[in-house]
């Protein structure tokens, strides 16, 4: 009951996006726009919920500590190792602080992303494959992902057995969504000045 209400309310918001597709049976534009919305939300959450200056300082301190450990291990100096071990508590505290910072955006974005996925799996988009232009199909290495999927999951009739002419350049909706989200997230992070690895 609750899930039906959630689905219908989300359907009111996302259904108009289906009309943006040049070909209704190939909703790659809709999935691209949904991926863009999710990417913007997660990027903004990362930008405003993480203190990036403090994170940079903590990363630098942890790198210094790890370098000290390596040097002490190489030299075999017992005194240096003992001194580093005494700093271990401080290191663990900093590591915990970094994890808490990185966790904040995840907590905020987790529920909206779950709702979006729920709508995607319940909507008509779940039953389609995305037909990509040949250039995009090969640049995104879709044949490689299909082969890996077939090897790992040994699936039966499906993408692998489709008519190679009619379905020459297809990807599942989830694969297209993941590729769009990953790419757009990187672009938005660069645009608003979030360094990689944060």
Description:
The protein is mostly helical and 198 residues long. Helices cover 73% and strands 3% of the residues. The protein is built from eight helices and two strands, in the order H-H-H-H-H-E-H-H-E-H. The protein has helices at 2-18, 28-49, 52-75, 78-86, 88-122, 134-139, 142-153, 173-192; strands at 129-131, 170-172. A two-stranded antiparallel ribbon has the order 1-2. Helix 1 packs across helix 5 and helix 3 packs antiparallel against helix 4. It is elongated, with a radius of gyration of 23 Å. It starts with a helix and ends in a 6-residue tail after the last helix. The model is unreliable at 155-168 (pLDDT under 50).
Write a concise keyword list for the protein shown above.
198 residues; mainly alpha; two-stranded antiparallel sheet; elongated
Low-pLDDT stretches are 155-168
Task: Report the order of strands and helices.
Answer: HHHHHEHHEH
Tertiary shape: elongated
Termini Cα gap: 39 Å
**Largest sheet geometry:** 2 strands, antiparallel
Percent of residues in helices: over 70%
Evaluate the radius of gyration. Answer: 23 Å
Strand content: under 5%
- Give the averaged pLDDT, no decimals: 77
The DSSP helix count reads 8
How many distinct domains?
1
**Count of extended strands:** 2
Write a brief caption for the model:
The chain is mainly alpha-helical and 198 residues long.
Lay out the secondary structure.
Layout: H1 2-18, H2 28-49, H3 52-75, H4 78-86, H5 88-122, E1 129-131, H6 134-139, H7 142-153, E2 170-172, H8 173-192
Helix pairs in contact: 1-5, 2-5, 2-8, 3-4, 3-5
């Amino acid at each position: 009951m609750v899930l039906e209400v959630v689905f219908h309310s989300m359907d009111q918001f996302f259904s108009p996006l289906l009309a943006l597709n040049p070909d209704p049976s190939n909703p790659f534009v809709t999935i691209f726009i949904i991926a863009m919305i999710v990417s913007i939300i997660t990027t903004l959450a990362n930008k405003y919920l993480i203190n990036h200056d403090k994170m940079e300082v903590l990363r630098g301190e942890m790198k210094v500590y790890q370098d000290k450990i390596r040097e002490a291990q190489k030299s075999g100096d017992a005194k240096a190792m003992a001194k580093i071990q005494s700093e271990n508590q401080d290191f663990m505290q900093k590591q915990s602080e970094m994890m808490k910072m990185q966790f904040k955006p995840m907590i905020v974005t987790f529920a909206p992303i779950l709702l979006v996925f729920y709508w995607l799996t319940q909507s008509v988009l779940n039953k389609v494959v995305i037909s990509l232009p040949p250039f995009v199909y090969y640049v995104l290495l879709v044949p490689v992902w299909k082969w890996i999927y077939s090897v790992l999951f040994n699936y039966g009739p499906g993408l692998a057995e489709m008519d190679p002419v009619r379905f020459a350049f297809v990807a599942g909706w989830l694969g297209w969504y993941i590729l769009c989200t990953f790419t757009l997230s990187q672009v938005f992070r660069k645009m608003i000045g979030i360094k990689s690895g944060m």
